[in-house]
Design goal:
Rossmann fold; 10 helices; 28% strand; Quinone Oxidoreductase, Chain A, domain 1; alpha/beta; globular; 7-stranded mixed beta sheet
Amino acid sequence: MKTAIYTSYGSPEVIQILETEKPLPKSNEVLVQIKASSVTRADTMMRAGTPKFGRLFLGFFKPKNTSLGTGFSGIIESVGSEVTQFKIGDKIFGEKLFSNGTNTEFLCIAEDSIIALKPNNISHQWAAPVCDGFLTSYNFLKDIANIQQGQHILINGASGSLGTAAVQIAKIKGATVTGVCSTKNIELVKSLGVDFVIDHKNDDFTKNKNMYDFIYDSVGKTNYSKSKNALKSNGLFITPVLSLNVLYYSISHPKKVKFAATGLKQPEELKQLFLELVDFFEQKRLETVIDKTYNLSEIIEAHHYLETGRKVGNIVVINQ
């Protein structure tokens, strides 16, 4: 089978497509034929080893985990002897963290992992990125911000993977939403339900004093220092993108700034959030935005495109 890996930090050209043996599921695992998998900005940052202080966790001189991809959707080909929740032929989707990546043709994953039956009303391509954009944003808006009806949230990077998810989740929660994006993406963001749109090329949201209960910087393009005046007196700045500014203020002003790595939550907590998202998709209350799809053999091109900064929504790798 074909698998994408990287064994050193650098440009997309460090990615290799290797022929490896198809894995065999352990007694508590299912073997999944991957139909689609995600490629995210986080993948490109880990591949490049940036920011460099992140290498304290990833591996200082070279990556400890050489695999790529976390989100996936596919069909179960075989099951371990102790598996009871799934059967051969089931269409499932979810996320695999801190081990074999999902940018591959086959994957073994434990049945109690962050996986579920794929809703019939969404395709494998729609399902594959759910645990990247939606799960992260749902964690921030529900668990970290505890956003309530009537509150006002500004989403910086509203047209990206996390941003398009956050807009929809915030509206489900009954919040007023201001989305920040570029001119070309205004109509997309409006179609997702935002109440107000700010074109970052023409307007500076940080000048809107005392406006927002929350600022969700989904792309790491601002920080608390720049945007604190736009928050209400009890407002909160939240972001999944770690920087030195965010690290400093999250420690020195923990009631004002919150950073979190969603993947580090307890597995049972992530599973519960994921299953709630599955319900929203089954109810057709959420929709995945996909910019481009690539074949697994084109994953280097996918990483190059991600680094242009022009991505809208999600990038998906498909296996033909």
